[in-house]
Amino acid sequence: MQLLNNNLSIFILILVLAGVLALLWHRFTNSPAGQFYKTTYHKITHNSYRKIQKDKGAYGEYQIYQNLASYERDGAHFLFNCYLPWRSGETTEIDALMIHHSGIYVFESKNYGGIIAGKEADEYWTQTLPAKGHSMTQNTFFNPILQNHSHISCLKELLSREAREIFAQTSKKTTKKEVPIHSVIVFSDHCDLKSVPRRTTESVTATYRTLPKIVAPIASKKRYALSAEEVSQIAKLLYPCTQASTAQKHRHVKSVQKRVNSSQNAGKSSKSSTHRRTQSHR
């Protein structure tokens, strides 16, 4: 009888523990962290939830995904941190891509606060951070419109070399299909963009929160420029570029830093020492 009671107690304890574990798992899977680990963003980048909370760059990329994730139901594929190769052997890094039947969206993410100012043709833009009790801080960063133009040039070059077979298989008319590529510059929701061009002939500028309103009319206007098969094949072609090794990333950073140092040295005589460069040419 004593043995039976002991076994029953153990069985009840196991049931209670199983119930507690099930409840904890349910709470986790429905929490922001649990939802994060189900996303395409996590599957592509392998970033942890902790990293997007600590790393402003990673958080900005995730904000792009979160605000446009509904396009996955419309057949879109997302890619992040794409290290595209130039013919020279150097690489350029694209923060985020959305490949959709309306074209390829190339996102340059700037998770910056403060007042952002700059013109389309300026080489550098400025970020001014208001401060209480002391003078404002002003930083300079490379014009993101020009930066994304470089990314798109590299992407077009890559597609012209590698995508011919895709279009040969999917298009009966021509293997020289023109892929619509849309440049989108995205800033933090906590910045002032009154002094930057919101729309140019080559690019649009948005905040993370306004992305859906910016992308929707473009997607509607260019509907079905690409077939579902072409979207899938382009994503498959570019996916390996998102899985760069640590060594490849280090080489990229060194190459970028070399170009930045060269640019800074060339412009040292014309730039004030009170300004700091905050963003490199990627």
From TrEMBL:
PROSITE patterns: NERD. Residues 248-282 are annotated as: Disordered. Residues 248-257, 273-282 have a biased composition (Basic residues). Keywords: Membrane, Transmembrane, Transmembrane helix. Residues 261-272 have a biased composition (Low complexity). Residues 56-178 form the NERD domain. Coiled coil: none annotated. The chain crosses the membrane at residues 6-25. Signal peptide: none annotated. This is NERD domain-containing protein. It comes from Brotaphodocola catenula. The lineage of its organism: Bacteria, Bacillati, Bacillota, Clostridia, Lachnospirales.
